[in-house]
Structures are given as structure tokens and as C-alpha cells.
Design a protein that fits this description.
4 copies of one chain form a homotetramer. Chain A has 373 residues and is of the alpha/beta class. In chain A, 44% of the residues lie in helices and 15% in strands. In chain A, helix 1 packs antiparallel against helix 10, helix 11 packs antiparallel against helix 14 and helix 12 packs across helix 13. The first copy, chain A, is globular. Chain A starts with a helix and ends with a helix.
Chain lengths: 373, 373, 373, 373
């Protein structure tokens, strides 16, 4: 987390009903529209991303409504579980965890739904458990090709502000996001970007709601205020984060993540290892999940890395538990930090006795110099 | 907000799934039990207090359930509005805003409910809009006297950690609290303390819920973890706040607030003004709402205080808009800060041409010296 | 110390030889010229004010040189001790500690020095031990009236940036200052403002010197650098402090201190007590030294104030030890902080059983409202 | 600079004459004895290291005294310049800048000084301009072998707290140090560790002094106080730094630096380049100066590294200007930070078109894994 943001969040809390607050609120709400690349509406919750998952559903659906959710990985499965829990009929399209959501499978499913019982298609943009990215624009096209009225609801909790995300251009209806990934903040803020169509559905959606209710937000938000106490200090941090992103330039931020993803894959390839994401063009610039050689424990490797080199890699979740480790390259990250990270992988592979070819870090180094930003 | 807490929340965020987090979570959960004076269960939400209002209801009630809520003031009314909005049958017992909830009226209402349709009685402990405190122990006795099975759900968002609150001894079933008052934190955390009886009701309560669901919390909480991403940096601040409260001693904290309340009322009396709370023994140690002389605008007075002395007083809400101003004396507050505050009131009264007797600040000064802590 | 400054000094240290440093150095050096109200030269030392006392002398004098120092109080005496220690012939003009330096006595002494053996007159601008201010402009006139070539060296360690100080207009030759009073910084930086005449004397002054040597500074300073490692983080704070002073406006800062001094004296008078400074027009806006009633210990009173009200008053030094206590009203200070301070005095007087009239704080309150800034 | 230390220095400043200060002062003074590995006396100045250079000389010598200083590099030359400037007869023993001070040359010079006119031998422990370390224990033996009474005065400004430094065991008389290197603080504090013999010399040393005078310090220091205002906030940081060093363990700190020095030299060798330090066993664990291939500008290379990889290498000073670049590996530094740094060197060498063999970073990686701490 950048020091600059930690400082911002430790500023004295102002009264969220006082005149000084409006500008803070307006900056945050308007800045987030730029981040989502939307001219539509953005709502900010004092909650973690899980709350925004729930908010997206309860604002647009009624008890018992059918939704289709693509199983890109662990987080897609958790979202489906939540949907079921709050009383929706949440159907899953099975995936192999080695790529993003498949537009063709979605189109096929929607075409089969001749009565238009499916009210929403839910897709994870950047699946944190696998390092794969779903082709959101193509999924919108698939829905349209099926001439289906279902809403397109996207989770970009770990993608937004690191990967290009074009809410308006791609025709997304609701996007769910959180503060603690690309926005480089501590957890505690979450977001719903909302299209005109989704707002329209909101009027007839009968799921009981109050805290998450978009309608309560619209009025006060117009003047920079919130219907209840916001997480003021995290909003300070949010405004600072948006300023940092704009200083670097959104496109530069996206390019940097993409380049670091490529350099990381160059290292993985040089080590003779395989990434979990197997679909070309769907590899994430946010993180790379690396598969362990057969017979080697990813968690044992991770423990060595933590103990000897004080570096913490993400663990494999549910279906790929102990079989992959995940290398993050997101947020406030530069070439030397990537080299430190990949050197850490190589040192730990060697230390842990995991079979690999030498030279992964060196391959990444070459890639970075040759493909200068 | 104490500098010590602002520093705590700006510490680097640790991984909320990593081994280092458990101790942070355990400290927070166990420390909050001490704050609530309970051996039962406490849940922590990454949300503002409004979320914990909702959580208390959706975890214990089913759609259409009847609840009785006492109108102590503005915040009690907002809570009733929320209850109605999420589909409960929320009945209000009217109040005059000049004191806490009346146990007798509650007992009468419950006795009349011969079929036990009322599922919960909701009461605000410290009503921030009026500066009155409800006698929670007496309300429990009233419920028991009526032999009624309704749950006692209490909002102590602005009372907890400033006023004595004995969850177990008083027989409260759910207590709703927030981070930004007596706990001296920025907003963004909220709490439910929960009795065994309330947990039992939870099993049969059919309101759809996921984010707020207590059942999801119990398992991970046992080891210091949370079912979804917590607001880690605010938890750092929470642990620091609890440490500060324990260093001073809870009883000393309560005594300090009570003494500051008395000194403030001595000042108000000396000015020849009246407090909004008219019931002796129910005046709050957290804040004092002062009634303006007839024909004088409280908001005009507040504007003078802000402009000339850079001090911000709370405004009158809904029924008492522009008729009262509210003086806070809570959190990390000492005798000299109270004298600064009351001097600010007196200077602004004089500056604004509000009719008053001189000597209020001096009366408070005398009270503070004579009634040494 | 303002939070804003504490934050500034905790920013990451940059390389003091790198390109990014020049702007920091230039801002500090140029900003300090504005603070001293001079177009001449200012030097900044990584040292406490005592170092700048020494620097002023070793840069302008030679071993055995005679200097005349006016005994305004404890700090003037300490400076004389230092001058003697480094080998100067430091003569003192005796004072009664109840006002600033007396221009007439200085003029008389200089007229008597027909051979012009006196090389410098040293005067303390704001004597922190007594709360008196010396009339610097009049002292320059006195030197000129005596047609004497002695340099005028002034210590404004505790006056600068709180009281008006006009280096050029008043004809000061060297002014000594420090970071920890009106500049609101932690200790660790000190200053010499230097006239053209003083720089000329520097060429022939033979006291050995290196660290303090102005000549070493001039070259690197011209580009924003220093001849040796500066206290970089305190320079961050200095630039922030100067920005704060400019935002408020220097004249407003001076007026505020003067008004707070008057309100404090109104309180002292109402209590029936006496200030140590007895010369009208020479009372300090930075601090007020209050004399205890005969037979009462100032230190016992100070102990009561610290114990019961957590407020720390300055002690009486050397000649007035235990006979006065000193009330500071400097730096980042507003009306309410003054009221808190004076309420603290009155509470402690009462608590400690010191004979006094009631109503000092109230008198100050009246003064502040009537003489609005 | 570690965040932990930046936080410490931004704590509110306490009164350096108040009761709360003594513990801070005592901790700092006693902790520094542990750092110097001495049971003798340590003095702390609010000044940069240059001030402590001056203090060491003015406290032990008289005007015109002869001292011998070994030219290990740029900083040794600066120190000699200072000595000359303050009136000492400072003789230099010429060096080639490719290693530490030579005990034999020192012994020869002292033996030749049959009248014992030389009052002190001055040596730089870790020469920052070259990355060489002088064998201090051997130099003490050389002085003793010559039966010469000269004091041994050592500058360990950039070595202390990174390299083993045994003040008592090695028989050093005065050691000069600063805050901004191994102690990981911002600049602004400096130190003199002082032997009994040096204190004895102090009694007869006639150089005029006040700010630097050890005698003034001894009394107040005994109780944790200082004779004049200390740089309080930097003392907070100093105590934090000492705590960090003790948590890691001094020996572990020294081993870490040594290991990082070896890994860096493995990289330099693999690149086919040469280090400036050519004397085996005298290479510094604090920094490594690398010689550029003939015909290539070190400063041009440094500019490429800064521009493309945002990493700043030290420049060559005076005799080796533009011919070397310096790689720091000191302070709060771990294996991954070293890998980031060395990857940065290799990327910049490639980017700048400097002839070199590939694989330096990889060689360092191997060294680090094989020679685990």
C-alpha cells in the first residue's frame, strides 16, 4: 500500500454532514466514474467487496429470480453461493478454471432460455484464484446475439484500476468493485457502477433492502453526501488513489500491468513451469497463478519463500489447493519490484528443491529491458 | 480523534487470510466483549452503524414481523424507517423527545399484546438528537414484568464506551454499535453484541441475508478470522482504542463523561438556558442539546460559532431543527477541552447577540474543581 | 506542534546532493528571508538555537573581542556565559528582569567606549524567562546616536514568527533564531540572518570556525544546497511551517499573538496577580510570566496544574525560580486554546489554594469577544 | 528509511526539560553505548556528522596541533580540509583510494615522529567514496607498536551499525558517527564516543569550544538531559532504530551486510567489471563502488538507471568522478531488495549499452541461496 495513501487515511475525520465534506464526496463519486469509464451512476458503500456483490443482486432482482453465473474459479463460486443464500435461483455454467468466461457457452445458455427466465448473467472479470480475465465486451455481444434481456453483472473487484475496464463501451449493467486491489486502499470501501437499464430494473426489483439500496443514495450523492455515515477516512484515501492513477495515466497503468504480466510469464516459461491460465490473451496483468510440478506441494514452497525470503505468495484455492501458487504484480508496482518478486520465486524454488530450469528472473529482466514501457 | 488511533489505522495492511491476522482479529473480538460487558458473542462488520441496525433486525426477524420502537428522537425514527423499508411491521411508541424511552409505556404496550405478536422491542440507548439516555435495565424489567418473549434490541451507537453499558447484566438481546463515537475511530466499523436467546431466534428468522449473517461469522471468528475481507486498518485502530479505554479504566471513562455532562448543565443553567432533556437522571454524558431562547435561530448561532471561533456544534434535527444546538463532550476529552468548548459557547452567544446570563463557563469551571474526578 | 508539520517531517528523506533537493533548499532559504523580513542573507544550521548563538559570534568576532550583552533575563545570561566560554570579553549590562533591554543604557555604555573597543551589542528580542520584549529598533537608534560601529546581534529564538521582526528596517546585523518556537517545528534547526556589514566583518573575524562558517554556506546555498548534510526532514517541516504562516498572513499571526497576550494580562489582572514584565508596551505576545503571591510556591502550583489538569506551565528560572510560572500562548494557537489554558490556570489556582480573585478566565473571554481579531 | 522510524520521529515533541524526557535521553545515550560496543562515554549532538568531526578535534586538541590523517578517499580529504580550516596542522598520508588505511604506513610515520609532535591519528573506518574498510584494530596495534601517545580518532559515520565496530576492544579514542546511515534515521544527529584517555586530553585541549564541549554534556547526560535543546524528535527515531537493531541482533546485522557485499561482488565479477576496492578483506558491506569500462561515463549510466528504472546510484567523487558508480546495500535491506538493486544495475547496463557479460544478478541470486544467512 503506498505510503501516500496511508497518510491520506490518517487525516483527521471531518463531519460527514458538514459543509467541508461535500467536496470530498463529490471528488470520490466523480473520480470513480472516470475509473469505471462511465457517464452513468456509481455508488460507494462502507463495506467490503462482498457487500457490493450482494448490493448488485438485491438492487436488481426479486426473491426466486434466476441468474446464470460462469464458474471461472473460486471467487465466481463464492458469489454463486451468496446468490443462492439470499434466495436467488443461481445456476452455474461449469468452467475448467484455466481461462475466463466463455461467451459462446453464455450465448448458448441464453438462446435456450426462450421464456427469458434468466434475469441476469454474472461474470467475474479478473478471477483472482486463477489469473484469468473474462472477455467482457464479447460476453455483452453474446447476450445481444441471443437477443436476451438479462442484465450483465460483472465482478471486477480485483481487475478495476489495473486492467482496462470500459463500463459504458462494453455495455455492462452493474459492475462490482472494491478498494483493496487496483485502488491500493485498505479494505472497507466497495462500489457498484450502474447502467440506466439496471436502475430501471431497480424500480421493480422486490428484494428487501435498505443499506444497499441505490435509491437512498441518489439524492444525497448528487450533492456529495451519503444517506448514512460513510467511511470518511477511506474516502480520503480513495481520492488520493484516484489522483495517483490520473498522474500516471490510466492507459499507462494498464500497460504497466500487461507488461509485468508478460515478463512474469517469460520467467515461468524459462523455469519450465506452466501457468494455470491456459487461454492465450486471457492471462491477467494483475496476478499469475503458477502450477507446481507434479508431486510438489505449492504450500510447502510458499512456506519456504515466506521463511527464507520474507515473501508471501497467494495460495491455491479449493479445486487447485496446494497445486498452484499465485504471484501478484498489481497496484503500486514497478520494474524493480517485479524483479525482486521474481527473484524471490527463483530463490525459493531453488531453496525448496523444486525442479526447475535456472534463468527465469533473467528472462524477465531481458523482457523488461527489451519491451520498455 | 486521538493521534494515537490515526497512527494505528495508517499501519501497513496485512493479509487478512495470513497467519499474522488471527491475533488482530482475536484481540478485536475479545476486546469488544469487554466493552459490551458480555460473555456472549460480538460480531464486527465492515460497515457504518446503519448496517448494524439492519443486521440486528435481519438476523432475528422474518418478513412482516411486528416490532415496537420507542420514539426517543430523530435516530429512533430513522431506525423505524429502516425497519419498515426492509419489510417489518414497525410500530412506534410516540415520545416527546425530552427524555429516554419510558419503561411503563413499553410494559403497557406489551401487556396489550396478548398474542405475543411483537417479536422485538427496539430502543435507542443514547439518543444523539436530544442528549437523553434510556433506562435499559428498567426496560428489560418492564418486558419481564409483562412476561413477554420479545427480544430487547438496543442501539448504543453513540453511547457505548462513553456510558456504562451492561449487556449481560441488563439482559439485552442485541446491541447495535459503531466505531465513530465512544470508540474514537473513523466511521467504517459496526457491531452486534448478541445474546444466546437472539442467536436462537436467528435459527428460525427467515429474512434473507448473507453479508450480515451471524452464522457465517461464528466459525471463522472463533479463530480470529472473518468470512469475508474485514476493514483491516480500522481493526488496528479498534485494538488501539480498546487499549486506551483499558488504560484509563472503563469506570473512569464513564465517570469522566458523567462529570462533564454535569459541568455542561451547570453552564447551561448559569446562562439561563434550558437543556432539551428534561427528565432528571436521563441526561447524557455524551452530549448536551441546548434550547435556544424563543425567537432565536440555533443555526444562525452555530454559524457564528463556526466563523468566529472555529467550533462546530451539532444542529437540531427534524422536530427540533433550528431550535437546539448540540454540544458534544465525548471520546478523548478532558477538563480543559470542555472549558474550551463551553468558553466557545459563551463567546458565540455573546457574539451572536443571543440573550443569556454571563458566567456559564465560570460555573462549569467551579463545578469541575469542586467535583474533582 | 501542528499535525501538518509532524506529517511533513515524516516524509521519506531525499538525497541532499540529488537534483530533487535544490527546490527544497531554495524554498527554505528564501522563505526564511520573508520570515526575517530581509533581503540580505539567511543561513540554516542543523543544530539547536545554542549553535546559532555561537555561530553569530564566531563569524563576526576574534578571540578576546569585547561584546556588551544586556541582561534581560536567564537566556541573556546563558548567552553571555557562552560568549565568555569561547574566549570573548563579554560584559553584561545589568537588568531587573522586568522588561526588555534599555536603549538609553546601551547608548550610555557605547558613548563611554571612546576607543570603540566594543565590537558588538547583543540583545535578546523576546526573553523567554520573563515574557518581556526588547525595543530593537530603538536599540539600533541608540547605537547610531552614539555613532558607534558595534554590530547589533539579536537573539529572536523565541520571538521570530510570532512577533513582528524587521531585520532590514530595524538595522539588525545578525539575528539568531531556532525552529522550535514560532516556527512550530521540533528542535534541530537554527538560523543566522546576516547583514552586509556583518558579512564584511566576517572576512576579518579570526575566531576559528568550520561548521558554523558562513563563507562555506554562501556558494552551495545559492543553488539550494548545503556544504554538508542538512537536517533534511526538518527542512520539510520548515517549508510547511512557512506555508502555514503565509496562509494566515504574517501580520495576522503577529496580531493574534498580541491579542492573546492582552487577553492573558486581562485574566492576570482580574485574578489580582501581577505579571513579571512591568514595562508597558514591552509585554510579550508569546508568553506571560505571572508572579505568585508572596509566600506561595510557583512550582507547587505548577505541580497541581500538571497533576489535576494535565497542563504544563513553564517554571521560573534562576533569579525568579519558584516565584513565577510562565503561560505560553504561541505557535499554532487559537482563542479556544487560550481559553482552555487560562481556565487551566484558574482551576489550578483554586485547586492549589492560591489566593486570587475569581473571574480571570471570564475577563479574558470578554476581552476576546470585544476585541475580535 | 524504515516507516517505523519515520513514524517515531513524527510523534509529538515533549518538553526536553520536563520529567518525561529523562527516560528518552537515557535510552538514547545508553543504547548508543551498545552500538559503539563501549562502556565509556557517548555524546549526542543535534548536528550533522560534519559537526561531530569538528567536535572530535576541538575537544582533544589545541590550536596548531599536528594530526595525521590517512587519505582513504574523498571523505578523508574533506575531514583533513576541516582540520586545517580550524587551525590544526593536518598532515595527510597519501593513499590510492583502492583500500582502507594502511597500518604499516601509519606505524612508519609515527616511528619517525620521535618528538611525539603528532597528537592524533585520524582514520575513516568505512570510506563511502570507495567502498573500502580500514582495519581499525590493526591501526591501534601499529600505534602501540610505535609506542606513540597519539590519539586514535576514527570516523565511522557510514560504518557504524552496519559493520562490526568495537570501540573498547579495538582501543579507539574518539569515534565520530552520524544518524543517517546504519542507524537508518534522517540526518540531524551526530555522535562522539570517547575513551577515558580522550577525556583526559580534553582537560588540557585549548581549542575554544562551547556547543561541542564534552564537559558541558557530562553532567546533564548523567540524568538523561542535555545542556541545550536536543533534536527531540530525532531522538525518538534513534531509540526506535536501536530497538530495531537489537531485535535483529547486532551480529545478524553485520552478517547480513557482509553477505550482501559478497553477493554484490559476485554480480560485479559476473558482469566482467571491477570494484574500486582492490584490497581483499577490505571490501565494504555497506556499499560497493564499481568501475566503468574504459571510455564509458559512469554519470551517463547513472542517468539511464534513474530515468528508466527509477533507481539512484551514488556518483564518483573528486579523483574518481564519472569513473565509478556506487551501489548501496545498507540499513533496512533484505535479499529481495538487493536483487531488485542488482537487477536495476543489470537492466541499466543493458539499456545504456555499457559492455558487460549477462548474468550478474543471477550470480548474486545463486550466492544468496547458497550462502543462506
Amino acid at each position: 500500500m503506498p505510503e501516500r495513501i496511508l497518510r491520506a487515511i490518517s487525516t483527521q475525520t471531518v463531519d460527514h454532514r458538514g459543509p467541508g465534506f461535500a467536496e470530498i464526496g463529490r471528488m470520490a463519486l466523480s473520480g470513480m466514474k472516470d475509473v469505471f469509464q462511465t457517464a452513468s451512476q456509481v455508488f460507494i458503500y462502507p463495506s467490503s467487496g462482498t457487500g457490493a456483490w450482494e448490493a448488485a443482486l438485491v438492487n436488481t432482482l426479486s426473491p426466486g429470480d434466476k441468474v446464470v453465473m460462469f464458474e471461472t474459479g473460486h471467487f465466481a463460486m463464492l458469489w454463486q453461493r451468496l446468490a443462492t443464500k439470499i434466495g436467488l435461483d443461481a445456476e452455474s455454467i461449469e468452467g475448467d478454471w484455466r481461462g475466463g468466461a466463455d461467451p459462446q457457452q453464455i450465448e448458448d445458455r441464453l438462446r435456450a432460455d426462450v421464456n427469458h427466465e434468466i434475469r441476469a448473467v454474472c461474470v467475474v472479470h479478473n478471477e483472482t484464484s486463477t489469473g484469468s480475465v473474462s472477455p467482457i465486451a464479447d460476453i455483452r455481444k453474446a447476450i445481444d446475439a441471443a437477443s436476451h434481456p438479462a442484465l450483465l453483472i460483472v465482478d471486477s473487484i480485483s481487475g478495476l484500476a489495473s486492467l482496462d475496464f470500459r463500463f459504458d463501451e462494453w455495455g455492462v449493467d452493474v459492475c462490482v468493485a472494491g478498494s483493496q486491489k487496483g485502488l491500493m486502499l485498505p479494505p472497507g470501501l466497495s462500489f457498484n457502477a450502474v447502467s440506466a437499464k439496471a436502475l430501471e430494473r431497480n424500480a421493480s426489483a422486490r428484494h428487501p433492502r435498505s443499506y444497499w439500496d441505490w435509491q437512498e443514495m441518489i439524492g444525497p450523492n448528487a450533492n456529495g453526501y451519503f444517506p448514512y455515515t460513510p467511511a470518511t477516512n477511506l474516502l480520503y484515501g480513495l481520492n488520493e488513489a484516484i489522483a495517483m492513477l490520473k498522474e500516471e495515466g490510466f492507459q499507462n497503468v494498464f500497460d504497466r500491468h500487461a507488461r509485468h504480466g508478460r515478463a512474469t510469464r517469460a520467467a515461468v516459461k524459462a523455469w519450465g513451469l506452466e501457468t494455470l491460465c491456459a487461454r492465450q490473451g486471457q492471462e491477467s496483468g494483475v496476478l499469475t497463478a503458477v502450477m507446481m510440478p507434479e508431486g510438489h506441494s505449492a504450500d510447502a514452497f510458499r512456506a519456504v519463500a515466506l521463511k527464507h525470503y520474507n515473501i508471501s505468495f497467494g495460495n491455491g484455492l479449493s479445486k487447485v489447493a496446494d497445486r498452484v501458487f499465485r504471484v501478484g504484480h498489481l497496484g503500486d508496482f514497478n520494474d524493480l519490484m517485479l524483479m525482486a518478486t521474481l527473484s524471490g520465486v527463483e530463490m525459493a524454488l531453488k531453496k525448496a528443491g523444486v525442479p526447475h530450469e535456472k534463468g527465469g528472473a533473467a528472462a524477465a529482466l531481458d523482457h523488461l529491458v527489451e519491451q520498455e514501457a
